[in-house]
Write a structure and sequence with these properties.
With about 525 residues, this protein is of the alpha+beta class. The chain has 13 helices and 23 strands. The chain has a domain of about 80 residues: Roll (Pdz3 Domain). Pfam families: Peptidase_S41.
């Protein structure tokens, strides 16, 4: 197309205007993105300071929101502690919030209060900013793990720069404090279901270094007083040092639990065949080919249907007559996975839960909680609303039918300890109640009669941004016995000795072989 001179002049002017406009818009866009970048940088983990102080008014505002939310939404708030006692603790805590505090100091004020609820699914977590900051600042934990035996404290693992400290050595003092006092102080911070103590023991055994740093503060070095071989006190100044594994060394496979350390080469566990994955591991015993050990360390398994089908198919093909279900340190997970496992081993229809219900839904805590869509779906679609406002999950109480194909009907033993929590404790409780299995080990960390769980949102406090994790449903197991506030009590309680711990022995599995030799089978 041919343009006249005036048209050409207009086109040049228009083109220049467009280019200038685009340039201006680009610069504005670039400037806007720079501002956003600066804003994001200000919100980065580097901008967060754990030393930031919150004023008493801010702390008390957060506290009142936490209290009102727990009172409105926690279905087991007064299950194990009376309202009068808890109210008194609430009042005492708010009175203590009378000075500026950091996030960590505020959290330490809340921990003893939340422990009084006696709900293992309820706890206080750091803010998201703190969690992001922590990823860039490796904490300096206390460099020793310890265990308690007859009210004395001993070294279980040494991660320090002092090789003179040995496993089994008695610890007398830590930073000038009696070791026994330190141990019991940290143990009291652990929240368990009801009046259970084994969960506390297990948690501290697994996490003593972290709990010590959390409660007493982070340090470069720590003073530890121990008894030497002559029973004389000797003090070391220690700090964390990563231990390098020697090449070609045979390293024990340790399950971090109270009184449960299992080496890889114990004859009782030496398998002739193994199946499964890191979540569920099936071993056929070389000492008795009719016995298999199913080590299940979690119910949080995505492909649990396929996995269980494969495992129980192998149990049938290997003609297993005695099955050991190892639930030690199984912290729970999916209810559906737990129910399916019970269906594979039950020989009659059964009910896993008597009831699963929540308090009337309240807007008190709703604006401060996460996962609102999922929570609303659970409360208003899955759960049925009763006339009084409570909500129940009906499908949880329906009768479960045993799996026909590959279902197991032989003798069954379950190994438990303080790390058996939530869904794994409920599994053990139901199978014991229905007389389907013999329980061996220590009391489970989760409640025998039930727990508060199912839907567990986080309540974010608006000032400090601490997160309070608390469940919205109370689930009662099939157990109809009175609730005494404890976990599943084993039919054969096993107490570990110091020798068992230090030598990586496993008396639990040895008890199974002892019962088999004695002919004391489950169905007698």
């Amino acid at each position: 197309m041919i343009l006249s001179s005036s048209e050409k002049s207009y086109a040049i002017t228009l083109n220049s205007f467009v280019r200038k406009t685009v340039f201006r818009l680009s610069m504005r866009s670039l400037f806007s993105w720079l501002l956003i970048g600066v804003g994001l940088s200000a919100c980065s983990p580097r901008a967060y300071s754990p030393e930031r102080m919150y004023q008493p008014q801010q702390l008390q505002k957060d506290f009142q929101i936490m209290r009102a939310s727990l009172e409105a939404g926690h279905p087991g708030l007064y299950w194990y502690t009376s309202k009068a006692k808890l109210d008194s603790a609430f009042d005492a805590t708010v009175q203590a919030l009378n000075r500026p505090m950091t996030e960590m100091e505020f959290r330490r004020q809340l921990d003893p209060l939340v422990e009084l609820i006696h709900c293992g699914h309820t706890n206080v977590r750091g803010s998201r900013s703190f969690e992001r900051w922590r990823k860039h600042h490796t904490p300096k934990d206390f460099p020793l793990s310890v265990f308690e035996m007859t009210d004395r404290i001993f070294v279980s693992s040494n991660f320090s720069n002092q090789p003179e400290l040995w496993k089994g050595q008695e610890v007398v003092k830590i930073d000038g404090r009696p070791a026994r006092e330190v141990y019991h102080t940290l143990r009291s911070l652990v929240i368990s279901d009801g009046y259970n103590q084994t969960f506390k023991n297990t948690t501290i055994l697994n996490n003593f270094p972290t709990y010590y740093r959390y409660w007493y503060g982070e340090k470069e070095t720590y003073d530890v007083t121990v008894l030497d071989s002559l029973k004389q006190e000797k003090t070391y100044q220690i700090q964390w040092k990563k231990e390098e594994k020697p090449k070609g060394a045979v390293v024990a496979s340790v399950r971090p639990v109270t009184g449960q350390v299992r080496p890889t080469r114990v004859p009782a566990l030496t398998p002739t065949k193994t199946y499964g994955n890191r979540h569920a591991h099936l071993s056929i015993s070389s000492r008795d080919s009719s016995l298999a050990i199913l080590d299940l360390n979690t119910f949080s398994i995505n492909n649990y249907r396929r996995l269980f089908r494969r495992l129980f198919r192998q149990i049938e093909r290997n003609h297993i007559q005695h099955l050991v279900l190892d639930l030690r340190n199984n912290g729970g997970g999916r209810v559906a996975a737990s129910n399916l496992l019970m269906r594979y081993v039950m020989d009659q229809p059964f009910q896993a839960y008597q009831s699963v219900e929540s308090l009337p839904h309240s807007s008190t805590y709703n604006r401060y909680t996460n996962e609102r869509l999922a929570r609303t779906f659970m409360l208003k679609v899955v759960a049925k609303r009763l006339p009084d406002g409570r909500r129940i999950i009906r499908h949880a109480t329906r009768t479960q039918k045993p799996v026909r194909k590959y279902g197991y009907h032989g003798d069954m033993y379950i190994l438990t300890n303080g790390g058996s929590f939530s869904a794994s404790s409920i599994t053990a409780a139901n199978l014991q109640f229905w007389k389907r299995a013999v329980i061996i080990g220590r009391e489970t960390g989760g409640g025998r009669n039930g727990c508060t769980a199912w839907t567990i949102p986080y309540l974010t406090l608006p000032q400090s941004h601490l997160r309070i994790r608390f469940p919205l449903f109370k689930a009662l197991t099939a157990v109809t016995d009175p609730n005494e506030g404890h976990g599943v009590i084993p039919d054969h309680p096993i107490t570990f000795t110091a020798i068992d711990l230090l030598a990586n022995q496993d008396p639990d599995i040895e008890k199974v072989y002892e019962l088999l030799r004695g002919g004391r089978l489950v169905k007698e």
